[in-house]
Amino acid sequence: VQSVLEGYNGCILAYGQTGAGKSHTMSGRDEPIELRGIIPNAFAHIFEHVGMETSKETYYLIRASFYEIYNENIIDLLASNTATTTSSVGAGSNKQGLELKESPDTGVYVKGLTSRAVKSVEEIDAVLRQGHKNRSVGATLMNQGSSRSHAVFSVVIESQSVDEDGVEHIRVGKLNLVDLAGSERQSKTGATGDRLKEATKINLSLSALGNVISALVDGKSQHVP
Question: What's the half-sphere exposure (Cβ side, CA atoms, 13 Å) at 141?
Answer without folding.
Answer: 10
